[in-house]
């Protein structure tokens, strides 16, 4: 992974919730996203302090090791990030949702390591501006920004094209590259806030890109659940949970690596005939589908299956180009 092209994202995930009091586990996951792909690379099982960590009998029945003590979700995230960096994984940025962005200790730990971050925070969070002389809620600060402060940027490509929002930023504090980043939905006016820090000055577009990468974590969960059965389990034991989750993550990483290796080297010009007319690259779901067919042979010969896969991906590429052209036309009209 090249430094500057990789970002890590932390996310909490409830595995087994049912909208009522029910058996469930809460996991904290770390994902790595690069220009070539993304996958979950670490996990921690969150243990509530009073109902679990302070109950010796319950801990014993669940097989929880004695050295495991209570840790908040941001603390678990910090442990995973530190372990990944110490293992040799390089990432210039970390992003996460509000549960992590609101934690000052996690942000301080990232700054101490020189790792930039774009962390979501509640719009009600109070921030200091004007060299620390004025404090106010993030959404109130956003509401006072002039129209000229807002810039239109894409937070990355979605299923139907670039995801455009209006963005604004304001410097926080003194002597540091600390920013409050605000995202505004162009249709509804809904706001989202991010606290940002970087070891060196960066343009707004870089912060927007990292903010958009946080969706990679959600995409990893969708792929892990839909393709490798991350949530297909019923276990109550510490070891059993970690075995299942680890094997599912390994399977997802395997598929992601295959997809990255299979991706063709395409021209950067979107109008180049190779880029504009070729099929989409092999995706994780498509590779899993081909694997499943190979393991359970059908009456259709292998050549026919590959031909069908190529036809489907060409059809998907045509649909994607149509969506992108429509989104670009809408942006031009707006």
The level of helicity is 40-55%
| Major beta sheet, strand line-up | 3-2-1-4-5-11-10-9-8
What series of H and E elements makes up the topology?
EEEHHHEHHEEEHEEEEHHHHHH
What is the overall pLDDT average?
82
Q: For the terminal residues, how far apart are their CA atoms?
A: 38 Å
Tally the beta strands.
11
Residue stretches low in confidence (pLDDT < 50, at least 5 long) are 1-5, 268-275
- What is the beta-strand fraction? 15-25%
User: Which of globular, elongated, flat, extended, rod-shaped describes the shape?
Assistant: flat
Q: Number of helical segments?
A: 12
**Computed CA radius of gyration, to the nearest angstrom:** 22 Å
Question: Helix- and strand-based class?
Answer: alpha+beta
Major sheet summary line: 9 strands, mixed
Structure description:
With 334 residues, the protein is an alpha+beta fold. Helices cover 43% and strands 24% of the residues. The protein is built from twelve helices and eleven strands. The strands form two sheets. The chain has a nine-stranded mixed beta sheet with strand order 3-2-1-4-5-11-10-9-8, with helices on both faces. A hairpin with a 2-residue loop joins strand 2 and strand 3 (37-46). The protein is flat, with a radius of gyration of 22 Å.
Kindly list the characteristics that best describe this protein.
12 helices, two-stranded antiparallel ribbon, alpha+beta, nine-stranded mixed beta sheet, 43% helix, 334 residues
Q: What's a quick, concise take on this entry?
A:
Helix content is 43%, strand content 24%. It is of the alpha+beta class. The radius of gyration is 22 Å and the shape is flat.
């Amino acid at each position: 992974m090249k430094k500057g092209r990789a970002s890590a994202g932390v996310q909490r995930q409830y595995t087994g919730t049912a909208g009522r009091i029910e058996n469930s586990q809460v996991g904290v996951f770390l994902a790595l996203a690069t220009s070539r792909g993304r996958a979950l690379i670490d996990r921690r099982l969150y243990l509530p302090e009073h109902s679990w960590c302070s109950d010796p009998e319950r801990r014993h029945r669940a097989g929880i090791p004695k050295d495991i003590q209570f840790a908040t979700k941001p603390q678990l995230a910090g442990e995973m990030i530190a372990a990944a960096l110490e293992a040799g994984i390089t990432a210039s940025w970390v992003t996460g949702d509000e549960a992590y962005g609101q934690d000052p200790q996690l942000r301080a730990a990232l700054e101490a390591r020189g790792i930039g971050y774009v962390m979501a925070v509640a719009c009600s969070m109070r921030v200091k501006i004007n060299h620390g002389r004025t404090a106010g809620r993030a959404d109130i600060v956003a509401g006072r920004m002039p129209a000229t402060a807002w810039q239109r940027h894409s937070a990355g490509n979605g299923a139907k094209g670039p995801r455009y929002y209006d963005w604004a930023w304001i410097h926080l504090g003194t002597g540091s590259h600390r920013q409050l980043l605000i995202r505004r939905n162009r249709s509804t006016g809904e706001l989202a806030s991010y606290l940002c820090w970087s070891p060196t000055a960066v343009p707004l577009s870089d912060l927007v890109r990292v903010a958009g990468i946080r969706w990679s974590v959600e995409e990893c969960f969708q792929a892990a659940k839909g393709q490798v059965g991350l949530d297909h389990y019923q276990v109550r034991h510490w070891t059993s949970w970690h075995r299942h989750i680890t094997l599912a993550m390994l399977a997802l990483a395997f598929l992601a690596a295959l997809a990255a290796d299979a991706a063709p080297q395409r021209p950067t010009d979107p109008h180049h005939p190779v880029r504009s007319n070729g099929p989409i690259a092999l995706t994780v779901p498509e590779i899993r589908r081909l694997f499943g067919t190979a393991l359970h042979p059908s009456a259709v010969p292998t050549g026919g299956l590959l031909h069908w896969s190529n036809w489907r991906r060409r059809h998907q590429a045509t649909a994607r180009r149509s969506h992108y052209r429509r989104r670009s036309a809408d942006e031009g009209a707006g």
